[in-house]
């Protein structure tokens, strides 16, 4: 009975989040509160149990990275790179798109996708206006590249952070298992954009001179700040990759990195803390309490048992279902709540697998599906929503379907490629 | 003195007016801000001059000073052209401005305190939802100086 009640509350909350009729932070806080008051979520344990409550590793990893990114973005490096790329492209549209996609895809694994998009899209709009070409195809391509690139590391996409923490997977695990398929997918995606956006590639040589007037060197005013930021960021990434030596949780590395970054750059703490997306952190906390409600009332166990019964004989079928199911569901719902909900169920299924390697294959199938599903629709990932918002503000409105018709194609292609990768690497 | 004693008539704009029009009204009237009224000339909100500017400067440049620096001088003078027919109403939705108002019988201390607290150099004088006039920072400071202690 309590399970049905918890599940009902959860479904209502998720439908509110999906339809975006009410602020999602309000939805999760109210639902989490109701679950605790009704005794569905495990009281004070939600604050102290890593697996049956709020996963502070996830929240503090996000907090640390938000502080680091908040300082890095002040350096102007993104504006410099994007304008430099535009100049190098000499105004040739496809070359410009490839260079902007490459910058986005290379930055996304280390910075969060939303920040990357917030930095790259405005400068893209400026460049496209100078060239007299519509910015929409470039913005859509950047978002898709960002979601693909972000899939390659532990810190690149929120679903990976949740999965890494729940499954105990390290930064290096993600590099070894996710990066190869992400690189292959990105190359295929770059080729695909040549076809997808072919009607948008009109070269206008007279306008090309306009972008040469942009002064990218003026974007960076403090080279010492830039050097310090990049050094600390490199050290943080190195510390992530030395997990097996240092035995430091990613959240600790990110928080220490954020502290060092504040010290060496002498950035104003209050200014930097304004860059932290506090609503996102609260959203995560509320979401974890809601999932704890499902776990505490046996819903997760029931779903896990059903999944084990269905898939225990065929790990490949489990991986296939996880990959495609996650891509489809992740495309129509925000992939963060989806991943947070599914992670404990996947954990139960993984525990029943014949060996650890097969179990880990399921985690990778899950991560690839959730990450690539983020490209499916205009609302599937936060970066998509943010990009459409910036586009509208700059007069380059992108409709839901304008984004989604490209997103679906890329999601289908990337998910199929991911399935082939999972099959060849883990099941042959 | 009361607010009604130092209030002046000021041109207003509506939510449907374009941001470019709003800037022009403020510039031609040499106003420190703007009062936005609805169809019945009821005041909806007061925009300090900096907030009018906030509507006029594309968001991307406000959020990313490095991008603003990278724009060359010739194009920088033309950022107005990027407003794309944006109206005052479009910007109000994004949370710019509030109704900074006093009753006609408000004392100069009340007006001064409100201006200081809300960082607004313009205050609407409102009675029964109708706009009677506005007190500008210039007018307030001038009146206070004139009413100041003799010999100072």
TrEMBL record, chain A:
Q: Does the keyword Ribonucleoprotein apply?
A: no
Provide the membrane topology annotation: Multi-pass membrane protein
* Identification of the protein by name: ArsB/NhaD family transporter
The protein's superkingdom reads: Bacteria
- The principal location of this protein is membrane
Q: Give start and end of each Citrate transporter-like domain.
A: 16-369
What InterPro entries does the annotation carry?
Arsenical_pump_ArsB (IPR000802), Cit_transptr-like_dom (IPR004680), Diverse_Ion_Transporter (IPR051475)
Protein family per UniProt: Belongs to the CitM (TC 2.A.11) transporter family.
Q: Which keywords does this Swiss-Prot/TrEMBL entry list?
A: Cell membrane, Membrane, Transmembrane, Transmembrane helix, Transport
Parts of the chain that traverse the membrane: 28-48, 60-86, 98-126, 175-197, 225-246, 252-269, 281-308, 314-333, 406-424
TrEMBL record, chain B:
Check the record and name the Gene3D superfamilies matching this protein: CBS-domain
- All copies of the CBS domain together span 9-57, 98-145
Do you know which SMART domains this protein is assigned to?
A: CBS
Q: Which InterPro entries match?
A: CBS_dom (IPR000644), CBS_dom_sf (IPR046342)
This protein is called what? CBS domain-containing protein
Q: Which organism is it from?
A: Actinocorallia aurantiaca
């Amino acid at each position: 009975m309590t399970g049905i009640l918890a599940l009902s509350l959860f479904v209502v909350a998720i439908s509110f989040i999906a339809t975006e009729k009410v602020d999602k932070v309000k939805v999760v806080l109210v639902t989490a509160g109701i679950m605790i008051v009704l005794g569905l979520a495990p009281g004070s344990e939600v604050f102290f149990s890593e697996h049956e409550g709020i996963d502070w590793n996830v929240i503090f990893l996000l907090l640390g990275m938000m502080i680091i990114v908040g300082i890095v973005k002040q350096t102007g490096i993104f504006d410099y790179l994007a304008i430099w790329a535009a100049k190098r492209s000499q105004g040739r549209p496809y070359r410009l798109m490839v260079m902007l996609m490459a910058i986005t895809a290379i930055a996304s694994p280390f910075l969060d996708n939303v920040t990357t998009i917030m930095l790259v899209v405005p400068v893209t709009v400026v460049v496209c206006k100078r060239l007299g070409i519509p910015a929409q195809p470039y913005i859509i391509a950047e978002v898709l590249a960002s979601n693909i690139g972000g899939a390659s590391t532990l810190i690149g996409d929120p679903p990976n952070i949740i999965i890494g923490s729940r499954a105990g997977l390290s930064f290096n695990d993600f590099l070894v298992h996710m990066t190869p398929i992400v690189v292959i997918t990105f190359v295929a995606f770059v080729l695909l954009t040549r076809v997808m956006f072919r009607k948008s590639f009109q070269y206008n040589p007279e306008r090309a001179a306009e972008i040469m007037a942009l002064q990218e060197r003026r974007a960076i005013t403090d080279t010492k700040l830039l050097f310090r930021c990049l050094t600390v960021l490199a050290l943080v990434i190195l510390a992530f990759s030395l997990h097996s030596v240092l035995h430091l949780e990613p959240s600790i590395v990110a928080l220490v990195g954020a502290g060092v970054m504040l010290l060496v750059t002498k950035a104003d703490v209050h200014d930097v803390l304004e860059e932290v997306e506090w609503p996102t952190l609260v959203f995560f906390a509320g979401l974890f309490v809601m999932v704890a409600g499902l776990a505490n009332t046996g819903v997760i166990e029931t779903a896990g048992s059903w999944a084990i019964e269905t898939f225990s004989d065929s790990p490949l079928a489990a991986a296939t279902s996880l990959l495609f199911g996650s891509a489809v569901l992740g495309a129509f719902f925000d992939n963060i709540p989806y991943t947070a909900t599914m992670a404990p169920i996947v954990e139960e299924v993984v525990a029943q697998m014949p060996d650890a390697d097969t179990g880990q294959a399921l985690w990778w199938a899950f991560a690839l599906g959730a990450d690539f599903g983020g490209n499916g629709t205009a609302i599937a990932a936060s970066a998509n929503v943010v990009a459409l918002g910036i586009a509208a503000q700059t007069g380059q409105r992108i409709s839901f379907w304008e984004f989604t018709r490209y997103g679906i194609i890329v999601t289908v292609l990337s998910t199929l490629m991911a399935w082939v990768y999972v099959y060849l690497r883990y099941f042959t | 003195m009361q607010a009604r004693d130092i209030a002046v008539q000021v041109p207003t704009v509506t939510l449907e007016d374009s941001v470019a029009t709003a800037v022009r009204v403020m510039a031609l009237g040499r106003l420190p801000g703007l009062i936005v009224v609805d169809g019945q000339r009821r005041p909806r909100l007061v925009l300090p001059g900096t907030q009018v500017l906030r509507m006029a400067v594309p968001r991307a440049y406000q959020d990313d000073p490095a991008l603003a620096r990278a724009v060359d001088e010739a194009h920088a003078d033309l950022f107005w052209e990027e407003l794309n027919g944006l109206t005052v109403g479009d910007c109000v939705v994004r949370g710019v401005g509030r109704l900074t108002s006093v009753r006609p019988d408000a004392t100069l201390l009340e007006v001064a305190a409100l201006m200081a607290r809300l960082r607004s150099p313009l205050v609407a004088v409102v009675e029964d939802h109708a706009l009677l006039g506005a007190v500008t920072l210039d007018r307030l400071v001038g009146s206070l100086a004139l009413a100041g202690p003799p010999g100072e």
